[in-house]
Design brief:
- The structure is a single chain.
- By secondary structure, this protein is an alpha+beta fold.
- It has 5 helices and 17 strands.
- The chain has a 5-stranded antiparallel sheet, with helices on both faces.
- Helix 3 (about 125-150) runs antiparallel to helix 4.
Length: about 280
Amino acid sequence: MRRPQLDIQLKTPEQIELMRAAGLVVAAALERMRAAVAPGVSTADLDAIAESVIREAGGTPSFKGYHGYPASICSSVNEQIVHAIPAPTQVLRDGDLISIDCGAILDGWHGDAAITVGVGEVRPELLRMAEAAEDAMWAGIRAAARGMLSGRGRLTDISYAVERAVRAAGRYGIVEGYGGHGIGTEMHQDPHVLNHGRPGRGPRLVPGMALAIEPMVTMGSPRTVELDDGWTVISRDGSIAAHVEHTMALLEDGVWVLTAPDGGRARLGDLVTAREPARSSAG
């Protein structure tokens, strides 16, 4: 079943269960990479870890081959915001900040998530920025759940919640032109989910929607430049950036954060659907 106008793919609860399985593969890959991040590790090393975890689980990397993209992750370091290609020559150094974006396909369904990790001893203000991005992501997910449950929620309520959380946290740039997206049988689907904007606009938030929510913030200007490789996006002023992401789905009784091991319960409490067992929040 699809909504008109934007061709939004609505999923059944059973299909969302399949997306959850893909999301857990992504979560496992990200946790393995988080543990491996250290000075002297290359972004190609991290890419190899991701591909190994995904394929061992019976999945396929979503990114590899996507419009010609050559790797299983995007590994964006410091002023790189998104879509940086892993390379053996890009070796992590003490004080770096790396954003790792990873996707997996399992039984035809996609999961997509990103984390930002400090390398060694990182300046506290950079860690605060990464925390602000993560808090804003959860604010957006919370707004989606509440909007759907109230029956009055609109897509840009998510955008507004993300922006408001970032603005409350500090003087950060909210990256222009990039944002979240629908997800399901394809990695990128309608609708596009901006990280800024007025509330109360766009399609209604209804059960069956699956969205990737992904704030991208910088220590400076929100303006970007795409490098000659056709993929890597950097901050125009060279300021360091953070990028985080979760895939979430809306059900009749709440939200399910499909790429969070606990389904989102630690951050969202009773807003999480009963399909995510409460015991998983301890695991």
